[in-house]
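Dear colleague,

Thank you for sharing your sequence with our group. We've completed the structure prediction you requested, and as agreed, I am returning the results in plain text so they can be pasted directly into your records. Please verify that the sequence below matches your submission; if there's any discrepancy, let me know and we will rerun it promptly.
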Amino acid sequence: MTAPLYTRTAYMTGDPAAIDQALDGLRAEAVGLLSAQPGYRGFGLFADRKVGKIMMGSWWESEQARQASDEQLRDRRAALVEPFAGTVTVDNWEAAVFTPRRPAEPGAGFRMTRFDFDPGKVDLLINTVRDNVLPGLERIDGFMMGALFVNRTDGRGSVGAIFADLDASRGPQAALRAKAVAAAGVTFRSLEEFEVVLTDRAADQS
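Please find the predicted structure tokens below.
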């Protein structure tokens, strides 16, 4: 089983008219700022320009590296999104299982499902995603990468997947999702889709 990594996500909503300014700033600075921090492993930037949503996530080799980077970069992150973000929610996760990560192709899309689970059954969830969900996703045309993110204490989780074509993947993933929710015994909460703006991984990672 792949050793877990640790992620920090920031979920922002605001005026769609101001989103491009925020995305331009993040595209210009985020990777440089993050990659200068010890333990950096990757970054993803995703947007829904029509509704006015930005999701970004950074990957770290340890919880300590994730925490230290947040302390170093919190103020700059706030400044970069200030013209756009009316709401900002920051969360920390364990990336419990994931496929090999690589930069996404232009035009790719990101789909995220959120759910709640019994913290006492986290191993069932991880095994279900590792043995059934990720292999199922890999069989869908256009699949590029995917991961399970969990908060073991709060019993919150999500599965994120990037596809070359979101439209074509909706039906096949819906069938897979229904089976996985039943098998893992989770409570499904939401489904969202985003444009992939930028992905990056540390040069020494496969």
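Summary note from our side: The first helix runs from residue 19 to 35.

Kind regards,
the structure core
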